[in-house]
Amino acid sequence: MLNTLRDITQAVAAARDLEAALELLVGQIKAAMSTQCCSIYILDKNELVLSATDGLEPSAVGRVRMPLTEGLVGLVAEREEAINLADARAHPRFKLFPEVAEEEYRAFLAAPIIYQKQLLGVIVVQQPSARQFSEGEEAFLMTLAAQLAMAIRGLKQKASVKEDQLQILFQGTPASNGIAIAHALVLGGQISLEQPDQTAADIPNELERLKTAIERCRNTLSTLAQRFDREQDEEVVSIFSALQLLLEEASLGGEYRDEVLAGWCAESAVSRVSLRYITQFMAMEDPYLKERASDIRDLGQKVLRQLIEPERLELNADKPVILVTREADTTLLAEFPRQKLAGIVTELGGVNSHAAILARALGVPAITGVDQVLAADIDKKLLVLNATRGQLMVSPSPAVVGEYRSLLSAERALQRQYARELNLPAETVDGKRIHLYMNAGLLSGLASEIAEGADGIGLYRTEIPFMLQQRFPSESEQVKVYRQVLEAASGRPVVMRTLDVGGDKPLPYFPIKEENPFLGWRGIRLSLDHPELFLVQIRAMLQASGSGEQLHILLPMVSNLDEIDQSLEYIEQAYSELKSDVNPELKRPKVGIMLEVPALLFQLDEVAKRVDFVSVGSNDLTQYLLAVDRNNPRVSALFDSYHPGILRSLKQARETCRQYGLGASVCGELAGEPGGALLLVAMGYNRLSMNQGSLARINYLLRRVRSSELEQLLAEALTLRSGSEVRQLVHDYLGQRELAAILN
Ligand code: PEP
Ligand code: MG
User: What does the pLDDT look like over 254-305, one tens digit per residue?
Assistant: First the structure.
């Protein structure tokens, strides 16, 4: 049974289009269930259309349409449950459609096809004899319907691309607001180093492909080296130069070629050479040589990408593009020149995945969880991305493009209007001063970003520079980076978070494979298991800060008091060593923890005895309080920081912190959203840290509201039932004050 299910689902997923898939499906189900008739009805504009049949009158396909209120098929759709009848004719909802010629059938079993609460259609099997289908048959059809739902939805979307070039085609989840109009650059996602062994049909041709791929790789590497050279990042430049050397004939370049000459196609050759050397290097004792395995892996993937997706990774595209990919890894986004990146569309990933956060940090409109977008043929087509509404349009008509161009310019005008006040303090009409800080992670552009508006850096995610490296950065390399960050903040406070890898932030050179990464080896857990790495990082932060008072150290993902105590011991150890050996003027930094793990909400009295402040990570706190993986598009609709339960927790945290004299700020995404900022201010948070792109908007908003009104707003919000009701309340509040445009 399992095999049959799997075969049918796979065949459908691989079908060329919806029609072919349905055709195939009815035949296969009929055979698998040894029945006389199988038909599929697909929902189209509130009607169920007979879309494929094996057993009814073929000419009725596409012609028979029924509203949900009619017939037994309509009843299945209406009730969203399976119906199993020994004699369909005896049922009061039975309706005869003469065109389909179903007079001979009596037994009737039907199951709805539902994808994420949305009805897509109904599968029906019928038999002439009046007998009830068995429980097993019913379960089989329901399982099949559930498994097919995703493939059918994908094919339906694909079909609508072809049918109507003017319509909205894809729906995703808004991850970074804004509108973009540009051509698509489709990247097929992760390239596996493990390519199948395939012999070459034409060796000279394979050699030519390999040569071109190597050449393109060389160009990309040299462009990247130049770019980082301009940003004076010598270490990164040296990595790219080393990779370029590895591409030479005398090195891996020659090895790849020899493997093609031995008869393998280019992809297999690169894969074979890379895997062979990786195994050899990994077996070496010397840690330096061991680390070289990751260079070989990286280079292999770069060459393979050029072979598999030629012309894809030209980071020098002459015009901005909308990147369409399975999963945007943070490295890719960070490497992509900002001015060339108009928008991001991903199949996977949730609103609070780190790629989404990075998109917001870069100010690039983005949507995630766009099902089957890679299956549709949209590469190089003109796209309109309305990320605020989660919509992606492919090849829209000139009128639609024109409409969006004017929306875009209106949006830019609004941004300029907000930016004009950025230098004025964020103070409510009744005089409550809120301190706005910036979240950062990338070095490039930091100096100009921090120049205006922010009261400091409220969250510096140190893992981002770690992710852009080929190995753990050394102490002196880290000192250099942290010094730049502190300098960019010119005297203003900087909250530097210790390494928060794990979860959805892997380091390319330190892979962690876990069943439940968000419940696994993340943040401080990993640092405390590797004190040698943790100490290097703390020492680097302290040295960068020296006798200044800017540095605040923040510990991520703390879940118990022992973790705080141990971390404090390491911080103290690094501090006293450096003070006695290097800098007698060294200042002891303030230390805080991220409030992300719910249990700590109930131990704030103990936390207050140990650290100076907490920074509420509303992204993770929401994820853990609601038990919703922030990265999983299937459940992303459930990830809601406006859930009244979350709001009550945040309010309680603020009150408890005040009771124990513990400083509290918020650095999760909620702080940078208009509704979130208003509610947090009402709770008493007066330090909010957000992406650079949100600063001007939130500042503008806070300067136009009264804190007394916000308290009322919060009181009402806390009595509501759901996050959507809270959003509506905020929307109405802003609407009454003619501020609703700020939500766009
Ligand atoms: C958070 O969890 O809210 C947070 C700011 O940390 P990150 O998003 O980097 O996990
Ligand atoms: Mg977090």
Answer: 999 999 999 999 999 999 999 988 888 888 777 667 667 777 887 888 888 8
Closest ligand 1 atom to Cα of 615: 5
Fold type of domain 1-164: Beta-Lactamase (3.30.450)
Instruction: Report how far residue 21's alpha carbon sits from residue 26's, in angstroms, rounded to the nearest whole number.
Output: 9
The mean pLDDT value for 240-251 works out to 82
Quickly list DSSP for 237-258.
Answer: HHHHHHHHHHTSTTTHHHHHHH
Q: Of all protein residues, whose CA lies closest to atom 6 belonging to ligand 1?
A: 617
Most confident of 166-180, 196-210, 627-641, 725-739: 725-739
pLDDT in tens, 73-124: 999 999 999 999 999 999 999 998 888 888 889 999 999 999 878 899 999 9
Q: Which ligand is nearest to the CA of 464?
A: 1
**What confidence score (pLDDT) does residue 236 get?**
59
Predicted confidence (pLDDT) per residue in 350-379, tens digit: 776 767 777 887 789 999 888 878 877 787
Amino acid at position 553, single letter: I
Q: What is the pTM of this model?
A: 0.72
Protein residue with its CA nearest to atom 10 in ligand 1: 620
Class at the top of the CATH hierarchy for domain 425-740: alpha beta
Which pLDDT score, from 0 to 100, does residue 278 have? 86
Cα(306) to centroid of ligand 1, in Å? 34
- In the β-sheet with 83-85, what is the strand arrangement from edge to edge? 65-67, 47-54, 37-44, 118-127, 107-115, 83-85
Cα 736 to its chain centre, rounded Å, is: 34
Which residue owns the Cα nearest ligand 1 atom 8? Answer: 619
Q: Of the spans 11-25, 129-143, 713-727, which averages the highest pLDDT?
A: 713-727
Please state the rounded mean pLDDT for residues 416-431: 92
Cβ of 667 below 6 Å from ligand 1: yes
| Active-site residue flag, 667 | yes
Region 645-669 average pLDDT: 97
CA of 490 to the centre of ligand 2 (A): 26
Two domains, one topology: 201-307 and 425-740? no
CA dihedral (45, 48, 50, 53) positive or negative = positive
Residue 17 half-sphere exposure toward CB, CA atoms < 13 A: 10
Alpha-carbon Rg for the chain in angstroms: 29
Please identify, by atom number, the ligand 1 atom nearest to the C-alpha of residue 503.
Answer: 10
The more confident residue out of 360 and 240 is: 360
**Cβ–ligand 1 contact at 504 (below 6 Å):** no
Query: Residue 354 catalytic?
Result: yes
CB distance 330 to ligand 1 below 6 Å: no
Helix/strand/coil for 19: helix
- Pocket lining: 668 vs ligand 1, CB cutoff 6 Å: yes
**What does the pLDDT read at residue 43?**
92
What are the sequence ranges of the domains in the chain?
Answer: 1-164, 166-186+325-411, 201-307, 425-740
Q: Whose CA is nearest to atom 3 of ligand 1?
A: 617
Q: Amino acid letter at 147?
A: Q
Could you tell me if the CB of 206 is within 6 A of ligand 1? no
Looking from the CA of residue 617, the nearest atom of ligand 1 is 3
Position of tokens 């010598």? 234
Catalytic residue among 354, 552, 643, 657: 354
Best residue for ligand 1 mutational test, from 358, 466, 600, 667 (most atoms within 8 Å of Cβ)? 667
Class of domain 166-186+325-411: alpha beta
Whole-number Å distance between alpha carbons of 384 and 405: 9
Q: 201-307, what's its fold?
A: Enzyme I; Chain A, domain 2 (1.10.274)
